[in-house]
Amino acid sequence: MSPSSWRTLPFLLLVSVTSVFASSKSFENTAIVRTAELGGSVVHVTTTYAIKALDDGQKTYTVALGRAEREKTSFIEAKVKGSKEPLKIKERALDTSKDYHLVDITLPKALSTDKTLNLVLETVQTHATWPSPATAAQNEDQSLKYQTNLLILSPYKTSVQRTKVKTLSPRIISYTTPENAKDLTDKDVVTKSGATVTYGPYDNLPSSTNKEFIEKYQQSILIHYHHEQPVLEVLNLQRSVEVSHWGANINTEDKIDLYNAGPKLKGHFSRLQHQSQKYFNKLSAHVLPALTLHLPAGLSNPYYYDLIGNVSTSNIRIAPSVPKNKQGTQFSVLEIRPRYPLLGGWNYTFTLGWDLPLGDVASYDKSAGKYTVEVPIMTPLLGAVVNNAELSVVLPEGASNIEILEPFPALAKRTDIHKTYLDTTGRPRLTFIYKNLTVKHAESIYVSYKLSWVAHLKKPVAVSTAILGLFTLGMFVRRINLSLTPTRKV
Amino acid sequence: MDDYRRLQALHHSLPAFTPAISISLLPFVAAFCLLPTFALAFYSSTLPTSKLNVKEPATALVASILGGFGVVALFCSVGVYV
Lengths: 490, 82
Hints:
Helix content of chain B: 55-70%
Distance between the termini of chain B: 34 Å
Radius of gyration of chain A: 29 Å
CATH superfamily of the largest domain in chain A: tricorn interacting facor f3 domain
Helix content of chain A: under 10%
Strand order of the largest sheet of chain A: 4-7-2-1-11-14-13
Radius of gyration of chain B: 21 Å
Number of helices of chain A: 5
Largest interface: A-B, 54 and 44 residues
Order of helices and strands of chain B: HHH
Strand content of chain A: over 45%
CATH topology of the largest domain in chain A: Immunoglobulin-like
Shape of chain B: elongated
Distance between the termini of chain A: 84 Å
Mean pLDDT of chain B: 92
Number of helices of chain B: 3
Number of strands of chain A: 30
Largest sheet of chain B: none
Low-confidence stretches of chain B: none
CATH architecture of the largest domain in chain A: Sandwich
Low-confidence stretches of chain A: 1-22
Oligomer: heterodimer
């Protein structure tokens, strides 16, 4: 399986398969438009390349990302514009001596000379923005800064390129006006219109993946903008999924460490000010009073508790159960209101769990004797990044021939034995470790396993053996005579 | 990715998982297994303690098999999905 979306750690070197070095003469970019949608902890960058082949039979197109940019990117996907199918991409080894990072995209069909194609490269950057000022009082605004490179690098010639930076609200405090860019364009180097700052158009750029060009023209641009929603990060997510065949149930439990990554609170927290702000609907942008989560439809026995105990300030609207091919079309909505509003720099740790009927997520292949379970990796939190995630899937006791199919590779995987109620030999537990997950990573892992009926009966047999042991003990104890005087047989 | 999509399509088309004993029946299975278990346990305590008594191990066996299934059904019906 070749994953088309990748994540990386800044210090992890990606080993690449040797790929054909793209000749700068094989393609020409007629237009490149990069749109960076600024969120809180997550920035969505979409780059559209309008390419034209200069040579015949070109199958691989190479895009370049800034090295710092690549280190912040946790999701990369390339598609042909208008298509839903992601293209195969291969990343070259991360070279810390170069300022750029190359990614080879395999085109769906070989392009002949002078044929054009529109490619869309979608990336999600995490931890790319930071609050500035770093502290804010309870009633102050929240503003963030985002820094990126001015020019989109490409190993091929570019006729025209633009970079658009979009914020959610039109309140932009400042944006850099690039120097040295006068000879790249004859119009304005930067314009702002509403919530969009456009850098460009920059015309007639040569092949830019070389040191001379980067030193001469590449510069960083900084946008300072107001952000009207709290910036959320999940520092740690531990999801534990347990499959039960006797109960026909799949239990999911999430342990979430929520962190408000906005400007840290300056001064003290005034409950009075908070209540009056809420009453007049003037809550500051960096205060998180409540959170809405979309959980699967058909769930039962939901629980939400933290260190102190059950949190009753929560509301759930459960949607009726849907079959397994309709998972993701209906949701149960859970609104949680933590015990205290989350201000900048504050943490909140809680546990969330629910049961789902196993028939809604598992299928049985009679010919192969295989069960397949769909396990979602995370519940997406809009605009939030999950710094560290651990997913553990506990299969029934005696499950064998375990196969895993992932939508994208996990950072680490391990298998061990987990013992819980009424277990003898223990259940297989698969653990997956992830870093920097975003809404784009909220997909499902498919786990297949075989469970023979002998293995299925292990549990009642184990309990029966224990009870039989008790009876045997009883039979012996009954025959022990502890009377002091001999019993006389009359 | 193709393998993933293929398995996804297969998963959607295959029949859903069905348990060996239907969930709605589990509380009744628990009751119908555990009550005889206790009854047989009591009965086995009243049996004479002669050396060769087939009744004792026989009741013990029946009671433990019923008890095994009863306990598993009981656990599942109260929400501890074992």
